[in-house]
Amino acid sequence: MFVDRQEIAGELLEEQSRVQAHRMRTRDLSKYNAIIFSADYSSILTFVDTEVPGAQSLEGVLEGLATRPSSQKTHWADMAGGFAIGMRQVAHGFAGPDAAKVAMSCVDLFDWEGESDEEDIKGISEISGVDMHDKQPNLIVANAETVDLPEPADVVTSVEGIQYFYNPLAAVANWYNQLNENGLLFVARLPLLPWSGNITQAGTDEQTLFTRIFDNFTQNGVSFAVEGPGTKDDPDFSLLALQRKEGTRLQQNAEVLQVTTDTEDYKSVVYTSDSPALEVVLS
Asked: Does domain 2-199+223-247 have CATH number 3.40.50.150?
């Protein structure tokens, strides 16, 4: 376990201990797959198929990557992963030599297992169907928005966490930049809490910020897909998938101007007008 709480404000810890008390117990592999790999999300499935043919689930992606003719481990990093239930379920599903080729890192503000009593852990084990003391991923106690991973990742996921971030664009750039070349990033907000409207830019309408970002991705050959319910031309979406292009990184140009928090602790973030707010640049 790696712990880095130097830049984590006490206010954020207090907020997220309240927010995550239930969510960290319920996000299992089936929820990740329902959110990212929904049968209704044809653009996401097509996006994934170009890199991992036939994969229609998170475990399918990891299995496809792990069976590549390479001595390198496949690294999955999950941001704000709570109890890492989905990771443990994936680990239990792997067998044989391929199991040793998958490394998993869970980034969270808390060591939920270490801070929970045994009765609580036993209950989660019974519900999830896996022993929570077994198949433990590498835990990184840090702010997922700014975390520095110990090694690059082949897959990065963030499921229903980014709506709490004070600088979500910085988080997306940070995660993209820590992918291996051709690595995959999946970032999902709550389905009824789309990115546009909650992440905006001063002096523009709700759609402009992401329209300009997506135009920049397209111009620079970065593969991406969005779903639920928007399109690339009408980016009222809740799920973003990106693939890191060789030799590139994301640069944040716009700065946070204002952050407001609603009664559910969801953040609405307004950025300065610098455009594009996220830009593809050479590494």
From this structure: yes
Both tokens of residue 204? 């523009």
pLDDT(92) > 80: yes
**What end-to-end distance do the CA atoms of the chain give, in Å?**
29
- pLDDT confidence of residue 209: 92
Q: Is pLDDT at 99 greater than 50 in this prediction?
A: yes
> What three-state secondary structure class fits 59?
helix
- Residue 201: count of CB within 10 angstroms of its CB: 23
Reply yes or no on whether the pLDDT at 12 is more than 80: no
Helices (H), 81-167: 85-93, 118-128
Per-residue CA distances from 220 to 72, 235, 245, 277 (Å) = 28, 19, 9, 15
Report yes or no: 214 and 195 within 8 Å, Cβ to Cβ: no
107-153, pLDDT tens digit by residue?
Answer: 998 887 777 778 877 877 887 888 877 778 899 999 999 999 999 99
Q: Which residues contact 186 (CB under 8 A, 6 or more apart)?
A: 36, 155, 156, 157, 158, 159, 239, 240, 241
Which two structure tokens, joined as six digits, stand for 76? 């999955």
Domain range annotation of the chain: 2-199+223-247
The gap from C-alpha 11 to its chain's centroid, in whole angstroms, comes to 22
Q: What's the predicted TM-score (pTM) here?
A: 0.91
